[in-house]
Amino acid sequence: MSEDRIRIALADDDVLFREGLASLMSRSGFEVVGQAGDAVEILDLVRLHRPDLVILDIRMPPAHTNEGLDAARVIHEEFPETGILLLSAHIEVEEAMELLATGHRVGYLLKSRVTGVNDFVETLERIAQGGSVVDPSLVRELIRTHRRDDPLELLTAREQEVLSLMAEGRSNSGIAHKLWITEGTVEKHVHSILSRMRISGTEDDHRRVLAVLTFLDAR
């Protein structure tokens, strides 16, 4: 087995789902170092194998509340270079905001939104390499329930589309391809978004993450 394969640990109490995901990951070129059915097991696995990436559900035994999220926080604290993907059937953005606010090696996807293997594999690779990915459906849900003083009200409909795609972790070229516009136009939209939302920062990537997190936090 090639040493440059991304090493993954999985945690989900649904055995059939977990086994299916493990099989898919193996066929896609990843090395699955272990599987777990609860938060305690996944912490033991991570401490033993030090995987590059951990995929875990938010709600797991015994109470099926936020056990997976709590485990993710511990993993991030003990092993900050380990990527974390919250793969859940539930929207728990508020609870996950602290983890997402770290801005690197973290992602949050809804299981129902994973419809393409290639896109999912690309997402895993992006997180393992230091990126941050948030399911755009979570962004859109929060847009619909935003507060009156929501900073997103300052954005045009097109800028909200661009920001939603930014949340997916897409580059400017990827956004341009998705929206059928030029990369230069995307750059102008991104600049406008950061300006309107008054996002300051020393690095463009960091500013993009802050913009996405502001988007998610707008209630």
What structural class do the secondary elements suggest?
Answer: alpha/beta
Strand order of the largest sheet: 2-1-3-4-5-6
Stretches where pLDDT is under 50 for at least 5 consecutive residues are: none
Determine Rg (CA atoms, Å).
17 Å
- Sketch the major β-sheet: 6 strands, parallel
Indicate the percent of residues in helices: 40-55%
Tally of DSSP β-strands: 6
SS field, number of helical segments: 10
Distance between the termini: 47 Å
Strand proportion: 5-15%
Shape: globular
Order of helices and strands: EHEHEHEHEHEHHHHH
Keywords: DNA-binding, Phosphoprotein, Transcription, Transcription regulation
Protein name: Response regulator transcription factor
Modified residues (4-aspartylphosphate): 57
Domain HTH luxR-type: 148-219
Notable traits:
six-stranded parallel β-sheet; 219 residues; 6 strands; NreC/VraR/RcsB-like_REC; 13% strand; alpha/beta; globular; 51% helix
Structural summary, described in words:
It comes from Streptosporangium oxazolinicum. This is Response regulator transcription factor. Strand 5 (106-110), helix 5 and strand 6 form a beta-alpha-beta unit. It is built from ten helices and six strands, in the order βαβαβαβαβαβααααα. The protein has 219 residues and is an alpha/beta fold. The model has no long low-confidence stretch (mean pLDDT 83). Strands 2-1-3-4-5-6 form a six-stranded parallel beta sheet, with helices on both faces. Helix 6 (136-144) crosses helix 10 (204-217), helix 7 crosses helix 9 (183-196) and helix 7 (157-167) packs across helix 10.
